[in-house]
Sequence to fold (264 residues):
Amino acid sequence: MLERVPGEVIPVVPLRRRDHSDAGRKMSWASGKARKDKLLRSELRRQLRDGVAQLHLRLTDAQLDALLIYTDILSRWNRVYNLTAAQVPGEMVTRHLLDSLAVLPYVHGETLLDVGTGAGLPGLVLAVARPDLSCVLLDSNRKKTRFCLQAVAELGLANVQVVNARLEQYHPRTRYSSIIARAYSQTSEWLGEALRLSATGAKILLMKGTEADCSQVAAVRECAKVMALSVPGLNAQRHLLTFDADCLGRGTKWEKVRQRGRSR
Fold:
């Protein structure tokens, strides 16, 4: 026990009050961020829903949710790996989701090969929109195929297979009813390899930018169609080259390529 000396004044130290201001600020910040995230999500959903309607497509709420979850996964990976140029959420909806969905009406049959898929574009988006479509995402970049595997797993897509390989080294038993690539530069070389993997009656689709980008197909114009695409919210030209595989396989320099592919 402290003994008090006569005449000694013992100072009274006031109890220190707990400062809750930091904790309060953190809670307020978290609450504000949650509200902003919710508003952003609502805006992105509206943008996607309106864009799908303008494309005259029908997607369920579950499909819209899956596509937005895909952009969440892509945003997360982009912070580390920089998979795509478009990284702002609203820009992703336009340049990735709606741009991919614009080609959906031209996908033929029930099997699709997406060559040089990158971050799963357009194949993964098309697979979400068409659950009956059996889709293979092909890319030689391991970082990109790892991302695709993660996205497929998180979205629970049973109709998608991811393959890490170069196109010329890819020799599946399957022949595809649709083969697609996005902005592939070497059209002539790509067509030969795509033809090797095409089924009877297949369509080969090549996504391009301006109409001038489609000039490389002059030699096979009789087998190709050039179509202008309108992507909601995108202030840039988009075109789709569609090739009739059977036409390409008759009397062209790729005829033997297709026959060799079918003999494997």
